[in-house]
Design goal:
The complex is a heterodimer of chains A (421) and B (853). With 421 residues, chain A is an alpha/beta fold. Chain A is built from eleven helices and 14 strands. In chain A, the strands form four sheets. Chain A has an eight-stranded mixed beta sheet, sandwiched between helices. A two-stranded antiparallel sheet of chain A has the order 2-3. In chain A, helix 6 packs antiparallel against helix 7 and helix 8 runs parallel beside helix 9. In chain B, strand 4 and strand 5 form a beta hairpin. Chain B is mainly alpha-helical and 853 residues long. Helix content of chain B is 46%, strand content 2%. In chain B, the strands form three sheets. Chain B has a two-stranded antiparallel ribbon. Chain B has a two-stranded antiparallel ribbon with strand order 2-3. In chain B, strands 4-5 form a two-stranded antiparallel ribbon. The chains are: A alpha/beta (421), B mainly alpha (853). Chains A and B meet through strand 6, helix 5, helix 6 and helix 7 of A and helix 5, helix 19, strand 6, helix 28 and helix 30 of B.
C-alpha cells in the first residue's frame, strides 16, 4: 500500500488543491442504490487460452502448439477449467482466484466478437454494439438509474462513450477527491474558508437561480440542454462531500486497486452508480507468455482487491462485476513469440443475480466457437454462436434496464438467452 | 504481375461493399470537380504536375466571401450573406424530396418479389441480425425498391442513350454500397448532396472512374449506369423540413471577434480592436483576425488542436519518453548531451529539451506551414522537417541548420536530414511511434490513421463487415478471403506504403514491400516504381490531391475550435438530422472550396469557420415552429482546461496556480492548476494523449467542484491585489475604491458611489462574460449589498471577522513580490467591501457564460 491518509493530507497541503478537512464533513446520507456495476476491461485483447479457455500443448494449425503448458496440466475448480499457472495462495494466482470465487463466477467462452480491430472490439464488448455514440453499458445503467449523482458514471478509460446521457468522471486520484469535496476551504485540516458559510450558501443559491434563468430564456436546444445538465450536476455537487467519509485510509500503489478504491467509496457514499475499470497491456504481439501471466496476476489480484473493498464498504452484495476484453488472441504463436488478434473472446461475470460455477460456450481446439442451444445453453451443433450482442441483451435484463426508454433508444439485435438464470 | 486490385468477376461486386461510392460522396458538392495542392518546388513533395483546383460549377456562395459588412446585434438576425442562398436551396431541395418520398411510398411492393435480381430477403434479414436498427432501414429500403420497375427505366434525368435498370441498380446498391452509404443513402457516408453530381451520366462516370475506392474502374457499363440510376433516385429520398440557417441569431462582428480572440489567442480584444471593428465591421474583423493569427498564443492553440488528433504529446510524460523512441542506430548523435561535459543538471535540461522538441516536431511543422502561409498540404508532403537546436544535434544536423539563438529551446527551423525521404508528419519518428505497427500489423494501423486523419474516412466505421474466425484460420485471408478483402483491399495498399519504415520508425529505403500483401498504392492507383525508396512521399502527394483531405482538415479545425464534431448523416434517415446535416454540409462545402482556392491557406479556413453560423449562433429568431430542428446548432462549448487557464489569465491578469502552503517554497515555473497533468488537467476533462484521448464535453460532479474552487480561490487572490494597484493599472476595479460604499453609516444612499459600483459591475460583466445586461447588473448589485450586510453584521458581532482569509490578503507587492510595509498591506476588510466584491467576482467566474463559450 502507498500513502496513508496522514501523509496524503500533508502532501496535499502544498499541492494542487488547497484542501478541505476530510474528517469534518457532514454525515453521509446517501440514498441507497439498488445495484452497482463495474465493467473491468483487459485492454488490448486478452489471451483466452492462458486463463479461461485453456487448450494446452495441442498442435496448432500454424505449427507449434496452442499453449506451452501440457494439456494434461489444465486445472479445474468446480465446473471451471483454467490454465495451469500461478499456483499458490497469493490473491493473483489462478488457484487462489478460482478457489475463492469459482462458485460465484460465470465464464462465457467462444464469444464471437466479429472483429480484430481494437476500437471496434472495445466498443462491442463494452456496449454491445459498434455504432458510434452508442453508450457503454456502465454509462447506460448510470443514465437509467441516477444520472444526476455527482460521480454517477466513473471511468478510467477504454470505450466509455456516454451518448451524452450522463457525464463521465475521471477520478483515479484520491488526493484530488479530498481537495475537491469541499471547495470553500483554503487548506486541508483547516477551518479557514474563502467565504463565510452564509455567504457561500447565498452565492450557490443565486448561481443556481442564474443557471435556471439562462436555461429558461435559451432558445438553442443544445445550449438549453447544457444549462439543464449544469444545473443538475451542480445541484447534486454538494453531495460530493459524502465521499470523504468513505475514502479508504490508505491509497494503494497499484493503479487498478486505486481505481477499485475510488469506485467502491463512491458507490458506498451513494454518489456513483457504475464504473469502468481498466488494466492495459494485453495486446501481446511479442513475448506473449512472458507478458501475459504477470498481467493476469495483476488482473486477478485487482479483482480480488475490488471484491474485498466492496465487502469492506458494505456494497458487495449489490455489486455486479463484468470482466472482458476487445477480443481474443490466435491459437498459435507468431515469429515474435507473441499472439496476434483473434475474433473469439471470453468473459467472466459475478454478481447478486448471476448463477456461478458455470461455463457457457466453448471453442474447438482451433479456437473456433462452438454453438450452444439457445434454451439449454448446452453445446449443440445446430444451435447458435454466442455473440457479444446476446450477452449485452442479457446484461440489460439482468440490471432491469431493458425496458427503460433510454435503453430502447439504443437497441441491440441479439438473441435473448437465459445466460444468468 | 501486380498484386494490386486482384479482382475477378466473381468478387468484383463483393469488393464494392466497403467504399462503393465513397469517392462520389467525398467529392461533394461537385463530384466531377478535381483539385490539388499548389506545390512549392523544393519544399514540398507535391508532384510537379500538381494542378490548380477547378473552380467548378455550383455552390459559389462562400462564407469567406460573404459580402455583408453591416454590423448586427445578437438579436437582430444575421449577416451571413450566403444564408439566403443556402436557405432557398435547402428549401426547394427538401420540398422536392418530400414529394418524392410521398410518391415512392405510395407505390406497391410487388416489384421486389417479382424482380429477377430480387433484393434478397435473406440478405436483408442477415443484415437485420447483424446491425441494430437495420430492420427499420431494411423496411425503408424495401419500400423504395418495391417502387422500382424491372428493366430499363425511362428516366427523364438520364441523358445517355441507355436508361438505367433501377432494379438491377438497387440490387447492386443493396449488396455493395449500403454498408457505407446506408440502405437509403443516409448511412455513415451519406449521399445526400450527391444531387450535385448533376445527372445520372455524371454520376455513372464517377462510379465508372473511381468506384469502388480500392478497385476503381471495376464497375463499368451497365453496372455503373444502373447503380447511378438507383442512387440518383435515392437523392430524392430525404425529409421535408424547414431547417433554415436564417432562423439563427448570430453574434455581431465584435462579439464574433471577442469569441475568436479568447478562443484562438486566449486574450480579450484591445480597445483599438474594439474601435476598429465597431467602425469597420466585417472588413475590420478580417484584419483583426489576421493579426490575431500572428500571435504566439494562437500557435500554441493551433498545436493543441492538432495534438488532439495526432496525440503525439503522449511522449511528453517523462523526461525521455520520446528520446527512447529514437534509435541510436538511426541517430548516433541522439545522446550528444551525455558527452558534452555537462553537469548533471545541464544534462537533464538538455535531455528534456530534446525530448520536448521530438514530441512537438509534428505540431511545429503545422505551425511553420500556417505561420508562413504555405499550402497546408505540406503537412503530408513537406520534404523537410522542423528542428530546434538541441534536436538538430540529436539528428546529427549540427552546423547545417542556422539558428538565430541556439539557446532558445523554442526556436524552430526547417531542416532536411540527408538520405531521409521526408513526407511531412507521415515520416516523423514520433508521429510514427504514436501510431505504431508490428511485424504482423504491417502498417495497417498507420493506414487506418492516414484514412482517418487525412482522408476523412473511418475505415472501421464504414466497413463493419463481421469477421469470422473461420476466415482468420484460412490461408492469408487478408489477401484471399472475401470477408477480409472488403476492408483490406483498401487498407493494405496504403499500409504497404509504410513498408519503408518496417520495425517502428526507422527509415529503411531499401526494404522491399511485404510479400504477402497487395502492392503499394491507394484508391486503385499503383505506386510508380520510381517511388520505391520513398513510398510515403508518393502517399503524401496522393493525399494532397484528394478532396477528402480538405474535409478532414476542416473537421479537425472545427472540432478543435468549436468543441463539436461535424455532423454525420443519421443512418436512420431521421428527417431533422438529415436536414441539419445537409445544411451544415453545404456551408462547410463552400468553406472547403474556398480553402482549396486559397491554395490551402489554413488561416483562411479558420477565418471562415469563425465567421460561419456554426460559431456565431447565439439563439433562434422568434417564430421558429420546431426548435428541435436546431438541436445540433450549438455554439457553446465547455472550455477545455487549456482554454480556461488562458481565459483566467486574460481577465484577471494572472493564472490559477498552486498556492504555497505555509512554509513551502514553490519552485520557479510552478505549473498552472488547470494544465498540469499532476493537478487538474485530466480531472477537468482534458486529455493525456495516451489513454485519455477525448475531452469531456460536459461538466461532471468533480468538474463543478473544480469550477467552484477556482472561482473561490481566484476571487480571493484577485480582489485585494487589484485594489492595491493604482486605478489606471487595475484590471478589475478601475471605477471604484475599497471605500466606495453605497450607503453612509446612517444608511443614506450615496448616489455617486452607487453609480460607480454599478458601472464597475457592468465593466466586470463585459470583461468576464463579453457583454453586460441590466438584469444581471441588478442581481449583482443586490448580491454586493446583501453580502456586505451579512458581513457587517458578523463584524459587529466579532471584530476578528474583519480580517481577510490569509490567501486573500496583500502582504507583498503583486508586481514585485517585495514584502510591503505594514501600512501598505491589505489585511483587514472593515467595511466588508473586499469580500462583497469577491462574491461578485466569484459569481462571474463560476458563471455559465464564463465557463462555456
Amino acid at each position: 500500500m502507498g500513502l496513508d491518509r496522514r501523509t496524503l493530507l500533508k502532501l496535499m497541503a502544498g499541492s494542487a488543491l488547497t484542501l478541505s478537512a476530510p474528517f469534518s464533513v457532514r454525515t453521509a446520507s446517501a440514498a441507497s442504490s439498488e445495484q452497482y456495476f463495474v465493467f473491468l476491461c483487459a485492454d488490448g485483447g486478452w489471451d483466452t487460452t492462458s486463463l479461461l479457455d485453456p487448450k494446452g500443448d495441442i498442435r496448432a494449425s500454424g505449427g507449434g502448439t496452442v499453449n506451452r503448458y501440457a494439456r494434461a496440466a489444465i486445472k479445474q475448480q468446480g465446473n471451471i477449467r483454467y490454465a495451469p499457472w500461478g499456483i499458490g495462495n497469493d490473491p493473483g494466482t489462478y488457484d487462489y482466484f478460482f478457489k475463492t470465487y469459482g462458485r460465484e463466477l460465470l465464464v462465457l467462452n467462444g464469444i464471437d466478437m466479429e472483429t480484430n480491430a481494437h476500437p471496434v472490439g472495445a466498443a462491442q464488448i463494452a456496449s454491445g454494439d459498434s455504432t458510434r455514440d452508442f453508450p457503454c453499458i456502465a454509462a447506460l445503467l448510470a443514465a437509467c438509474q441516477n444520472p444526476d449523482l455527482p460521480l454517477s458514471f466513473i471511468t478510467n478509460g477504454y470505450y466509455d462513450d456516454t451518448a451524452g446521457l450522463v457525464p463521465k468522471t475521471r477520478a483515479s486520484d484520491l488526493s484530488t477527491l479530498y481537495g475537491l469535496a469541499s471547495p470553500n476551504r483554503l487548506q486541508p485540516g483547516s477551518e479557514e474558508t474563502y467565504f463565510d458559510a452564509e455567504v457561500d450558501a447565498l452565492l450557490s443559491k443565486r448561481q443556481q437561480a442564474r443557471v435556471l434563468s439562462l436555461r429558461d430564456s435559451e432558445t438553442l436546444p443544445e445550449r438549453k440542454a447544457q444549462l439543464k445538465r449544469l444545473y443538475s450536476v451542480r445541484k447534486t455537487g454538494t453531495e460530493l462531500g459524502r465521499i470523504l467519509d468513505k475514502l479508504p485510509s490508505a491509497m494503494s500503489d497499484k493503479e487498478l486497486e486505486r481505481q477499485a478504491q475510488i469506485a467502491c467509496a463512491a458507490f458506498s457514499a451513494g454518489v456513483a452508480v457504475s464504473a469502468n475499470l481498466r488494466l492495459g497491456g494485453f495486446d501481446t504481439h511479442d513475448n506473449s507468455d512472458k507478458l501475459v501471466y504477470p498481467l493476469y496476476h495483476e488482473l486477478l489480484s485487482g479483482i480480488d482487491f475490488l471484491l474485498q473493498e466492496a465487502e469492506r464498504q458494505g456494497i458487495r452484495d449489490k455489486l455486479t462485476l463484468v470482466v472482458g476484453s476487445d477480443f481474443g488472441r490466435r491459437p498459435y504463436y507468431n515469429k515474435a513469440n507473441g499472439r496476434d488478434h483473434w475474433p473469439i473472446g471470453s468473459m467472466m461475470l459475478l454478481g447478486p443475480n448471476i448463477r456461478g460455477n458455470r461455463v457457457i460456450g466453448a471453442t474447438s481446439d482451433g479456437l473456433l466457437p462452438r454453438k450452444i442451444n439457445p434454451v439449454s445453453l448446452q453445446l449443440d451443433d445446430s444451435g447458435v454462436v454466442l455473440s457479444y450482442r446476446d450477452i449485452h441483451l442479457a446484461l440489460r435484463k439482468l440490471m432491469a434496464i431493458h425496458n427503460d426508454s433510454l435503453t430502447k433508444t439504443y437497441p441491440i439485435s441479439g438473441l435473448t438467452l437465459p445466460l444468468f438464470s | 504481375m501486380s498484386r494490386l486490385s486482384p479482382i475477378s468477376s466473381g468478387n468484383l461486386l463483393k469488393a464494392f461493399v466497403c467504399c462503393g461510392l465513397l469517392a462520389c460522396l467525398l467529392l461533394l458538392p461537385g463530384c466531377g470537380g478535381g483539385g490539388s495542392a499548389q506545390a512549392t518546388p523544393g519544399e514540398s513533395n507535391s508532384s510537379a504536375a500538381a494542378e490548380r483546383p477547378a473552380s467548378s460549377s455550383s455552390h459559389e456562395s462562400s462564407v469567406a466571401a460573404s459580402p455583408s459588412s453591416n454590423q448586427a446585434s445578437a438579436s437582430a438576425g444575421n449577416n451571413f450573406s450566403s444564408l439566403s442562398d443556402h436557405a432557398s436551396s435547402l428549401s426547394s431541395y427538401t420540398a422536392s424530396l418530400s414529394s418524392k418520398v410521398a410518391s415512392l411510398s405510395s407505390k406497391t411492393s410487388s416489384v421486389v418479389n417479382a424482380s429477377p435480381v430480387s433484393i434478397s430477403s435473406v440478405a436483408l434479414s442477415r443484415a437485420a441480425e447483424s446491425s441494430p436498427g437495420v430492420s427499420s432501414r431494411a423496411a425503408s429500403f424495401s419500400s423504395i425498391t418495391s417502387s422500382l420497375s424491372s428493366g430499363r427505366a425511362s428516366s427523364s434525368a438520364a441523358t445517355s442513350a441507355a436508361a438505367p435498370d433501377l432494379v438491377a441498380g438497387a440490387s447492386i446498391y443493396a449488396e455493395k454500397c449500403s454498408t457505407c452509404h446506408g440502405a437509403i443513402g443516409t448511412g455513415r457516408i451519406a449521399l445526400l448532396n450527391c444531387k450535385s453530381c448533376g445527372s445520372i451520366t455524371a454520376l455513372r462516370d464517377v462510379i465508372a472512374a473511381s468506384m469502388p475506392l480500392e478497385q476503381p474502374k471495376s464497375c463499368q457499363g451497365s453496372c455503373a449506369l444502373d447503380t447511378a440510376g438507383f442512387i440518383y433516385s435515392l437523392q430524392n429520398i430525404a425529409p421535408a423540413s424547414h431547417f433554415n440557417l436564417r432562423d439563427l441569431q448570430l453574434l455581431d462582428w465584435l462579439g464574433t471577434y471577442r469569441k475568436a480572440a479568447n478562443n484562438l489567442a486566449g486574450r480579450l480584444p484591445t480597445d483599438a480592436e474594439i474601435s476598429a471593428i465597431t467602425a469597420g465591421g466585417e472588413e475590420a474583423l478580417d484584419s483583426a483576425l489576421d493579426n490575431l493569427m500572428d500571435e504566439p498564443q494562437f500557435y500554441q492553440r493551433l498545436r493543441d488542436i492538432f495534438n488532439d488528433r495526432w496525440l503525439v504529446r503522449k511522449y511528453q510524460n517523462g523526461a525521455s519518453a520520446a528520446l527512447a523512441e529514437i534509435k541510436l542506430e538511426d541517430y548516433p548523435n541522439r545522446d550528444w548531451f551525455e558527452s558534452a561535459g555537462y553537469s548533471d543538471a545541464q544534462r537533464r535540461e538538455a535531455r528534456s529539451k530534446v525530448n520536448l522538441a521530438l514530441v512537438e516536431e509534428s505540431l511545429a511543422l503545422a505551425e511553420y506551414i500556417v505561420r508562413n502561409n504555405r499550402a497546408f498540404t505540406e503537412i503530408v508532403t513537406a520534404n523537410y522537417t522542423m528542428v530546434t537546436y538541441s534536436m538538430a544535434r540529436s539528428y546529427g544536423l549540427e552546423g547545417s541548420v542556422n539558428f538565430t539563438d541556439p539557446t532558445n529551446a523554442y526556436e524552430w527551423q526547417p531542416a532536411v536530414i540527408p538520405g531521409f525521404a521526408h513526407s511531412g508528419v507521415l515520416s516523423q519518428p514520433i508521429f510514427l511511434s504514436r501510431h505504431p505497427t508490428s511485424e504482423t500489423n504491417k502498417g495497417r494501423h498507420r493506414a487506418y490513421i492516414v484514412y482517418l486523419e487525412f482522408l476523412d474516412t473511418d475505415i472501421l466505421a464504414t466497413s463493419r463487415q463481421p469477421l469470422t474466425a473461420a476466415s482468420e484460420a484460412g490461408d492469408n485471408p487478408t489477401l484471399n478471403d472475401a470477408n477480409c478483402t472488403l476492408c483490406h483491399n483498401t487498407i493494405d495498399p496504403v499500409a504497404q506504403l509504410f513498408s519503408n519504415f518496417q520495425g517502428g520508425n526507422s527509415f529503411r529505403p531499401d526494404l522491399p514491400q511485404f510479400a504477402d500483401m497487395l502492392d503499394a498504392g491507394i484508391a486503385g492507383k499503383a505506386m510508380p516504381d520510381s517511388y520505391d525508396k520513398k513510398r510515403l512521399q508518393w502517399l503524401g502527394q496522393q493525399i494532397a490531391k484528394d478532396k477528402r483531405f480538405t474535409r478532414a482538415i476542416l473537421r479537425t479545425l472545427y472540432k478543435g475550435i468549436s468543441g463539436h464534431d461535424t455532423l454525420s448523416s443519421p443512418e436512420s434517415g431521421d428527417p431533422k438530422g438529415l436536414a441539419a446535416y445537409a445544411a451544415q454540409r453545404e456551408v462547410f462545402a463552400s468553406i472547403e472550396k474556398a480553402f482549396i482556392n486559397s491554395n490551402y491557406n489554413l488561416k483562411g479556413l479558420i477565418k471562415s469557420l469563425i465567421k460561419s453560423p456554426y460559431m456565431r449562433a447565439v439563439g433562434l429568431n422568434g417564430g421558429v415552429a420546431d426548435p428541435s430542428l436546431y438541436d445540433t446548432s450549438s455554439t457553446a462549448q465547455l472550455l477545455t482546461p487549456e482554454m480556461l487557464d488562458r481565459k483566467i489569465t486574460a481577465v484577471l491578469g494572472h493564472p490559477w496556480k498552486r498556492i504555497a502552503a505555509e512554509g513551502e517554497v514553490l519552485a520557479a515555473g510552478t505549473k498552472h492548476m488547470l494544465t498540469n497533468p499532476a493537478y487538474l488537467r485530466d480531472i477537468y476533462g482534458g486529455i493525456n494523449s495516451s489513454d485519455i484521448t477525448e475531452r469531456n464535453k460536459d461538466s461532471n460532479g468533480l468538474m463543478v467542484a473544480v469550477q467552484a474552487r477556482m472561482a473561490n480561490q481566484m476571487s480571493c487572490v484577485s480582489v485585494a491585489n487589484d485594489f492595491y494597484l493604482a486605478k489606471s493599472k487595475r484590471k478589475l476595479f478601475p471605477l471604484v475604491e475599497i471605500n466606495t460604499l453605497p450607503y453612509d453609516s446612517n444608511g443614506v444612499d450615496i448616489a455617486a458611489n452607487q453609480s460607480a459600483i454599478n458601472h464597475n459591475i457592468i465593466y466586470l460583466q463585459q470583461r468576464l462574460l463579453g457583454k453586460a445586461d441590466a438584469e444581471l447588473t441588478a442581481q449583482l448589485y443586490d448580491l454586493f449589498n446583501k453580502v456586505r450586510a451579512m458581513g457587517l453584521k458578523r463584524i459587529a458581532a466579532d471584530a476578528n471577522a474583519k480580517v481577510l482569509a490569509s490567501q486573500c490578503q496583500v502582504r507583498v507587492d503583486p508586481q514585485t513580490d517585495i514584502v510591503l510595509a505594514g501600512n501598505k498591506q491589505i489585511v483587514n476588510d472593515e467595511q466588508y467591501t473586499l469580500r462583497s466584491w469577491m462574491a461578485v467576482l466569484r459569481f462571474l467566474l463560476n458563471d455559465y457564460a464564463f465557463l462555456y463559450e
